Amino acid sequence: MAHDSIQLPCGGDGACMRCKVTPPTEETLTCSICAAPWHVGCLASKPETLASTLQWHCPDCSGDPLLPPSVATDGSSSELFVAIKAIEADESLTEKEKARKRQELVSGRVEEDGGNGKGESSVLDVLDESLNCSFCMQLPDRPVTTPCGHNFCLKCFQKWIGQGKRTCAKCRSTVPPKMASQPRINSTLVSVIRMAKLSKSNAAAGPLKVFHFIHNQDRPDKAFTTERAQKAGKANAASGKIFVTVPPDHFGPITAENDPDRNQGVLVGECWEDRLECRQWGAHLPHVAGIAGQSNYGAQSVALSGGYEDDEDHGEWFLYTGSGGRDLSGNKRTNKEQSFDQKFEKMNEALRVSCKKGYPVRVVRSHKEKRSSYAPEKGVRYDGVYRIEKCWRKVGIQGFKVCRYLFVRCDNEPAPWTSDEHGDQPRPLPAISELKKATDIFERKESPSWDFDEEGSRWKWKKAPPPSKKPANAADLKEGKRTRKAIRHSRKLSTRERLLKVGNKKQ
DNA sequence: GGGCCCGCAGGG
DNA sequence: CCCTGCGGGCCC
User: How far is the CA of A78 from the C1' of B11 (A)?
Assistant: First the structure.
């Protein structure tokens, strides 16, 4: 082997910059400090034991090519490295699984097993954070606890000791000889993990699935502006914390179970200052768009703010126009002029799905709905649940085709603009003749898909209950996207910085 | 009150 | 990544 005075790592293409050959994985060493890959064959000095490869420092980082591998200075990166090596060494995993686990490690995100664990247990999350075995990154199997308070699987720990190590793999404290020779399983921890796992599986099977927005806890209680938002005020604000625990694709009312803060749910008639605040209570999540939905799944909510002239609002029922058909190029973000036909696609299709399936749609009204007497005086108000009785396309008053929807109120709470004359009784629907007159093509076909139960006080699904599961892939995609976005966002401005910024603004 | 402009959020 | 979106503040 030629020993040039300059040692070089592998380049971006994976090829060794010295011999130009792309070494196989087993001939590649990754520096535990800078994570750069190096071709073992071209190294002047190689680590001698498996253990020392785990904490190997490259010539660039060690500053001395002959320096023997020593205690890592950067605990986190070396832990990551150890964990990745552990994954790679695990023969029970396929290459695909290994790749996924590595990805999870690097991204700091652990996917829920089987895809059915979306009702994640916060208890277990906390455990995941603090109790994981530093070697395999899983909840420890037969956990042993060092005097310094770190937990490992018995097997992982024994393997480590077998390599001649006498320090804690997490904090580098010395492991007492007695513990090294005879590690004891921490039985308290065993039962804690068992209980947590049990509660997790119960939560996954139970009817109450609580969903937490990723990184939601990092958000302040009020809307905030980021560094990039240049003007003061809320025009460019990012929204604050979401207070309710319903998933973004939750249909129907938001009940007390999903309102941990107040334990009352979002009440019909509840008002907020603006769309950003409305979003925080989950009634309508998009802070500009009028329709919340997914074209292959349904629409969860709409916002009325009087954007279309031929919309009609009669309180108990109203006509709604779909989105699109307007030229929004340049900065005309809210151009009112139609310039082409709307089609049943994207959000319009989402509304159509909700119509066909009979899903309930939450409705919020904004004070901007100037032509309507049902609009709130100011801010945004939650007006309960409607169903879309019919949807169709017609030529709008601007000469282009628009998607139209007939919304009919079907909430068992009284509307905010009425006295509760019906008490606990189901609220009667608007007279069909009245609707027919207004829509001129309205015809009622079948009975609605959902209704109230015998007592008239609870939801009951007659035909098409709202999907209990999230749409395949779509939800996962969404979570993944959020995560990636959150990561990107946190790079731009850390949570701490953001909070500080909000704090400064208040002063 | 209308136009302009900004950036966030999320679907696709 | 790109595009869209019934916000919201500010300036005229």
Answer: 39
Question: Model's pTM, two decimal places?
Answer: 0.54
Any atom of strand C under 7 A from CB of A235?
A: yes
Residue–nucleotide distance: A151 CA to C8 C1' (Å)? 51
pLDDT tens, A389-439?
888 888 888 888 889 898 999 887 888 888 777 666 666 777 766 776 666
Contact in structure between A370 and A306 (CB atoms under 8 Å)? yes
Residue A166 contacts strand C, CB under 7 A: no
For the four alpha carbons of A325, A327, A331 and A334, in that order, the dihedral sign comes to: negative
Give the distance, in angstroms, between residue A308 CA and nucleotide C2 C1'.
26
**Residue A432 lies in domain:** 221-325+336-474
pLDDT in tens, A461-471: 455 566 765 54
Contact A462/A450 with Cβ under 8 angstroms? yes
User: Which token pair is A129?
Assistant: 């954070």
pLDDT (tens digit, 9 = 90+) per residue, A47-84? Answer: 665 556 666 777 766 654 332 332 233 333 345 445 65
Is residue A25 one of the residues assigned to a domain? yes
Q: What ranges in A176-324 are assigned the alpha helix state H?
A: 177-181, 187-205, 275-280
A199 and A294, same domain (yes or no): no
Q: Which residues pair with A320 in a beta bridge?
A: A405
Q: Beta strand pairing status for A317-321 and A401-409?
A: antiparallel
Read off the DSSP letter of residue A488: H
